[in-house]
Every structure is written in structure tokens, then in C-alpha cells.
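Q: Hi! Curious about what SH3b domain-containing protein looks like structurally. Here's the sequence.
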Amino acid sequence: MFARQIIPAVAAIGCVLGAGLSAVAASAQTAETPYWASISVSRVFMRVGPSMNYPIEWVYKREGLPVKVLRVNEGWRYVEDPDGKRGWMASRMLSRTRAAIVTGEGNAAIRAEGSASAALRWHVAPGVVGELGECSAGWCAFSVRGHRGFVEADRLWGDGDP
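A: Let's find out. The predicted structure is below.
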């Protein structure tokens, strides 16, 4: 008799947990696009379609590289990279951690504060990737391997509204 009472209770708990997990999965699928993400692994494939059955178009070997997520399809994200290339990446290879890449000509100044008159901390070359912090008044907090400072927002790809 005791076993009969436990089984329906366990089944009910399983149904509630399953419904909760389905709700989480559904909410991940309806994430508002576009949004910023970054590559969270040392190697990821960009495919021409949203499945492992589609051919690989590009191989990325740049952990932390920012991408713009344009569409969501189950476990896949249609993304755009800093060069404008578009394709599909597995969502598990991406993070919502904000990142940016330095763009433009010549080195970008990293300052102690968000101001052109603030003390110069160092320079970074175009192509350097770092974690992006808050942006305000044309300047963004930017961290590269633990070195923190501020860079002009117009020198970054990955800031602002996607």
C-alpha cells in the first residue's frame, strides 16, 4: 500500500519538474533577439544551417570573441561575427558574457577613467578582445586579462545595442 502512494507522488513531482524545465527551455528559445554573446570555448564551428548535419563554413579559435545573436532555433544561434560573417553556432558554445573587440586603425588608448584627459594606462592593437563593462558618454570599461581601463566606445565592436 505504501509503495502505491509513493509512486503517484513521485510521478507528480516528476511532471512538475519536467514542466519547469520545459518552461526554462522555452524561455531560452524566445530570448529577445538580437543580443550580444561571446564564444565560450577555444574552438567552435560556424555552420551554414542549424544542425550538425550542415557543412562547416568557418572554424573560430578565439575564446571570448563577441558575436551578435540574430536568431534562435532550438539549440542553435544564428550569429554575426565582427567581420560581418553570418552562420549558425551551437548555443552551448556561447556565453552571455559581454565582450568586445578593438577595431579601427592604429592602437587604441586605454585610460584610467572614461575621459580623453584621463591618465593613459596602455595601448591595445586592433583585434584585441576583452570583457566589456558599462558604457557611458562614449567610453566603455574594458578588461583584457585582468588589466582594466576605459576605451572610446567607437573603437569597439560589441558595445551598444545589438
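A: A fun detail: Confidence is low (pLDDT under 50) at residues 1-29.
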